[in-house]
Amino acid sequence: VNITTMAVNDTVTDQSARIAKLALIVKNQTEAIQNLTDVIQSQTTRILAVNTTLKSVNNSIIGLNQSIQGLTNLSDKLTGAINNQIGVITQVNSTTCLLYTSPSPRDLSTTRMPSSA
């Protein structure tokens, strides 16, 4: 009976040691899982912040595109107005004759009136 009791005690002691080792492994794994969960939560927060920033950048790009479109429209209008003015100037130039009536320096070398006058 004593040998059987000793064998049972040894088996119980071995099993208790194994259970203690498994409990330590489970505890370590639980801590590792908690650390990973913390990392995932931190990364999720960063991803959400980046997503918010990207939305803001996208909105800025949309605004810039609208400004560019507005400037393009204004440029087209200005180009049209300039072309109209060039047409008017061209038309005026083709129908206008400028007459120069002032004496040129060349004219000063000759006298217009007789010297006896």
Instruction: Please identify the structural class as seen in this structure.
Output: mainly alpha
User: What order do the helices and strands follow?
Assistant: HH
Helix content: over 70%
Number of helices: 2
Principal-axis shape: rod-shaped
Cα-atom Rg, whole angstroms? 50 Å
Spans where pLDDT lies below 50 across 5 or more residues: none
The pLDDT mean sits at 87
* End-to-end C-alpha gap: 168 Å
What is the number of strand segments?
0
Main β sheet profile: none
How big a fraction of the residues is strand? under 5%
Describe the structure.
Helix content is 84%, strand content 0%. The longest helix has 94 residues. The chain has 117 residues and is mostly helical. The N and C termini lie far apart (168 Å).
Task: Please provide a brief summary of the model.
With 117 residues, the chain is mainly α.
Write the layout of secondary structure elements.
Blueprint: H1 2-95, H2 105-108
Question: Which short descriptors sum up this protein?
Answer:
117 residues; mainly alpha; rod-shaped
